[in-house]
């Protein structure tokens, strides 16, 4: 397709040429479309729309954690079954991510996201009508929510990568990833407060579906599909698609990608565990200390979810912003800045998380202070890890790389960590006294500090390979690039593989 053809914002879904084409000449005015095929204003609007959807994504994910004591009381379930609520969602999300990663590298991305978010909104609404006798129905609907989230999380960062490069890309990814801690915190706050106001936890799950349908309308009518790789002066038709197996083979040989993915797995393990269990742990600590009464009514005390949600919002913004700033300054001294900052964030978070867990029985204020610092350091790597992936992977493999990272980080991270923490807590509990309800969960949460140290080690190892892999991605040349071969007095273009026998 020539660059002089019209834009394809309305291109059919199943078309590999669905990206908008760039300008016809090099002398465009500032308000005209750039090489990405998207104007400057619309590109900025696209980032904020993706931020909004990511915000809803994490709001919905952690609304359940905000009302978890209510859910446990309502269904009469133990810690292991409570952990399954997060596990079934992550497993669904994780196994479907490669499917959407494959589609996202080949077809119109905004239509894929629109369909997924519509499905997610409807299933979330359905989960709010689960009756008391059917806990399995809540597990099923929470699992189906992962379908919608997989369609979005694997694709959205690649759209930002096709709109911006270098420093601007990092800044826009920072805006996008601010939604993770802010959305998570709002999930606790909105979930607990709506449930408290309605005296029914079901209403907490009815907030995000309507907001999700608004997101679909914004995607369809505002967002425009950008050219893949064109803004990097590497249009997609010059890069060539390879088979999915070839993509996976190349990604698994990319040391920086794999090691940073394992480091991010540790982040997923810790955040997944804390996200589900921290408010419940704080409530049990307060009951054990005699500061609050036990949860014997239909609605449980919600102040811990409210406070933890506020801390998550603040520390997330501080962590993401400080991580990007520290990385930007450190890049002036070393090209290995990104993995080093990620490693420092995890290694610094470990002692604060340990102190927060151990001080819970003695001082609630000290616990919140240590959680504040632990979560701040833990949040430093969100935008940086995404940036690492985008600059060590070529444009035509980025959605697949996002999907593979999601699968590995969740499979070994937060897919099992909420259930593992709950199961270990149940196994350590000697009786149902308030002491052992608190103590068993306290001991099981100590796993988080250990895993954070392991994750820091993976990021330190990533620093050894980051320069080499970034250079390889920037200078990537397809191995099957057509070459000119004489044929009957004139030249013809044939693949390298057909002549290299």
Question: Distance N terminus to C terminus?
Answer: 31 Å
> Which strands sit side by side, in order, in the main sheet?
1-2
Describe the global form: globular
* Largest sheet geometry: 2 strands, antiparallel
Helix content: 55-70%
**Which percent band covers the strand fraction?**
under 5%
Sequence stretches where pLDDT stays below 50 over 5 or more residues: 1-32, 480-485, 487-501
Structural class: mainly alpha
User: Using only CA atoms, what is the Rg?
Assistant: 24 Å
Mean pLDDT score: 78
Count of DSSP-assigned helices: 20
Secondary structure layout plus pairing:
Blueprint: H1 40-66, H2 68-75, H3 79-104, H4 109-127, H5 135-153, H6 156-161, H7 166-198, H8 208-221, H9 236-239, H10 244-252, H11 255-288, H12 303-330, H13 337-359, H14 364-378, H15 382-392, H16 398-414, H17 417-428, H18 434-445, H19 447-462, H20 466-474, E1 483-487, E2 490-494
Antiparallel strand pairs: 1-2
